[in-house]
Design a protein that fits this description.
Distance between the termini: 34 Å
Helix content: over 70%
CATH topology: Preprotein translocase SecY subunit
Largest sheet: 2 strands, antiparallel
Strand order of the largest sheet: 1-2
Strand content: 5-15%
Number of helices: 18
Shape: globular
Oligomer: single chain
CATH superfamily: SecY subunit domain
Length: about 450
C-alpha cells in the first residue's frame, strides 16, 4: 500500500490536477470565500471618521494594536465590520474546550458522538455572540473617548452609535465564523486558519514596502536588512523541517486465518507528529492576551492608572508579555495535544484490530507507552513553538521591525500552507485511485464480454 501511494505521488502532474473536477471546485470555493472576506475588511463601521481614526491608529501603533491588526487582516486599521475578525470565536472555542475537560456535563456531551458535538458547537456559537458583543461594546466606548488633532473619531457619539457598532461588528464576526465553517466543509483546509492566513498574507506586501522605506530613511543599514532576510528564510526552513518531523511507532499485526488461507503478519507504524497542535497554541495564546487588552487598549486616559499599568506591562515586547505569551503557547501545546491524541483510545483501537507494539503488552501498558512518547515529543514541540514565537519578538523589540515578521505570523503562514497543500495532495491521490478502480472495472467487464 505504501509503495502504491508513493508511486501515485510521483505520477502527480498538472494533468492529474486538471482532471480532478471536485478538487477544482473546492479550491475555487475557497478563493471565492477569501475574496468575500477581503472585501469585507474594507467596509467601514458606520459613524466613524476615517481620517481621524487613521491618525489615531498611527499614533497608537507599534504595540498591542499591531498584534490585533495582524489577525484582523488590516480590518482594525480601517475600522471595518471585521475589526474583531474571528478572534471571539477562537476565544469561545478555548473556553468550551477547557470546560469539556473540567465540567462533567460538557464532557458527557463530548462523548455522545455527533449529537454531542453539535450541541457543543451550538454553545460555542452562543458564547461567540456574547464575547463579540462585549468586545464590540468596549470598542465603541473606546472610540468615543478617542480624539485626534482634527476632532473626535466618532461623528455622532451616543447610545445609537454604540448599538449600531455592536450590531455591525457582532454580525461581521458571526459571518466570518459561518464562512470559516463553510470553507472547512466545502473547501480545502481549515476555514478559520485560512481566514487568518489570508489576512496576514494580504498585508505582507505593505510590510515589505514599509521595511524598505525604513531602510531608505536610514533606520536600517544594508547588513541589517540582509540579516533580516536571512533570518526569515532560516526560520521558514526550520518551521518546515519541524512541522514535517514525526516519531514512528512500529505496530505489528499477527498472522490471521482468512478462510482456508493463512495471511502473513504485517507491520505498520503510527506517525506521531512532533508538533501535533500545529498553529493552535500561538493563535490561542494571542487570542487570550488580546481578550483582556481589547478594552484596555482603547480605554486611554479614562481607564485610570490600573488600565495604564496593564497596558504598559502587557505591551508588545515587554518582559511580562514575553513570559505570559511563552507560557500560554507551551500550555496550549500540551492541552491541545491531549485533546487531539488520546492514548487510551489508540491503545484500545490497536487491541481491537489485533495490533500490538513489539515488546509492549496490549491495553494499559500500550496506553502508558504512547502517553510517555507523546509527552516527550510534545515537550520538544512546545520548546520549538516557544522559540519560534519569541525569538523574532526579541528582535522586533530590539530593532523595531514590523510586527508582520514575527514568529507567530510566519508560523501560521507556513503551517497553513503545508496543511492545505497536503490536503490537495490527498485529494489528488484519491482521484488517482478512483481512476485506477474505474479502469480495472472496465477491463473486467470487457474481459467477461470477450469470453462470452
Amino acid at each position: 500500500m505504501a509503495s502504491a501511494v508513493e508511486q501515485l505521488s510521483k505520477n502527480m502532474s498538472l494533468g492529474a490536477f486538471s482532471k480532478a473536477t471536485e478538487l477544482k471546485k473546492r479550491i475555487m470555493f475557497v478563493l471565492g470565500a477569501l475574496l468575500i472576506y477581503r472585501l469585507g475588511t474594507y467596509i467601514p463601521v458606520p459613524g466613524i471618521d476615517p481620517h481621524v481614526w487613521n491618525e489615531i491608529f498611527q499614533q497608537k501603533s507599534g504595540g498591542i494594536l499591531d498584534m490585533f491588526n495582524l489577525f484582523s487582516g488590516g480590518a482594525l486599521s480601517r475600522m471595518t465590520i471585521f475589526a474583531l475578525n474571528i478572534m471571539p470565536y477562537i476565544s469561545a472555542s478555548i473556553i468550551m474546550q477547557l470546560a469539556a475537560a473540567m465540567v462533567p456535563s460538557i464532557e458527557a456531551l463530548k462523548k455522545e458522538g455527533e449529537s454531542g458535538r453539535t450541541k457543543i458547537n451550538q454553545y460555542t456559537r452562543y458564547l461567540t455572540v456574547l464575547l463579540s458583543a462585549i468586545q464590540a461594546y468596549g470598542l465603541a466606548v473606546g472610540l468615543e473617548n478617542m480624539e485626534g488633532t482634527s476632532g473626535s473619531a466618532v461623528i455622532d457619539p451616543g447610545l445609537f452609535f454604540r448599538l449600531t457598532t455592536v450590531l455591525t461588528i457582532v454580525g461581521g464576526t458571526m459571518f466570518l465564523m459561518w464562512l470559516g465553517e463553510q470553507i472547512t466543509a466545502r473547501g480545502i483546509g481549515n476555514g478559520i486558519s485560512l481566514i487568518i492566513f489570508a489576512g496576514i498574507v494580504a498585508e505582507l506586501p505593505r510590510a515589505f514596502i514599509n521595511t524598505l522605506e525604513l531602510g531608505k530613511e536610514g533606520q536600517f543599514s544594508f547588513p541589517e536588512l540582509a540579516f533580516l532576510a536571512i533570518m526569515i528564510v532560516g526560520i521558514i526552513t526550520f518551521i518546515v523541517f519541524m512541522e514535517r518531523a514525526h516519531r514512528r511507532v512500529v505496530v505489528q499485526y499477527p498472522k490471521r486465518q482468512m478462510g482456508n488461507q493463512m495471511m502473513m503478519g504485517d507491520s505498520n507504524f503510527i506517525p506521531l507528529k512532533l508538533n501535533t497542535a500545529g498553529v493552535i497554541p500561538p493563535i490561542f495564546a494571542s487570542s487570550l492576551l488580546l481578550l483582556p487588552l481589547t478594552i484596555v487598549g482603547f480605554a486611554g486616559a479614562s481607564g485610570g492608572d490600573f488600565t495604564a499599568a496593564i497596558a504598559r506591562y502587557l505591551q508588545h515586547g515587554a518582559p511580562i508579555y514575553m513570559v505570559l505569551y511563552g507560557a500560554l503557547v507551551a500550555f496550549f501545546c500540551f492541552f491541545y495535544t491531549a485533546i487531539v491524541f488520546n492514548p487510551e483510545e489508540n491503545a484500545d483501537m490497536l487491541r481491537r484490530n489485533g495490533g500490538f507494539i513489539p515488546g509492549i503488552r496490549p491495553g494499559k501498558s500500550t496506553a502508558d507507552y504512547l502517553d510517555h512518547i507523546m509527552t516527550r515529543i510534545t515537550t520538544i514541540g512546545a520548546i520549538y513553538l516557544v522559540f519560534i514565537c519569541l525569538l523574532p519578538e526579541f528582535l522586533i523589540a530590539k530593532y523595531s521591525l514590523p510586527f508582520y515578521f514575527g514568529g507567530t505570523s510566519l508560523l501560521i503562514v507556513v503551517s497553513v500552507t503545508l496543511d492545505t497543500v497536503g490536503q490537495i495532495h490527498s485529494h489528488l491521490i484519491a482521484h488517482q485511485y478512483e481512476g485506477l478502480i474505474k479502469k480495472s472495472q472496465l477491463k473486467g467487464k470487457s474481459g467477461r464480454t470477450r469470453r462470452r
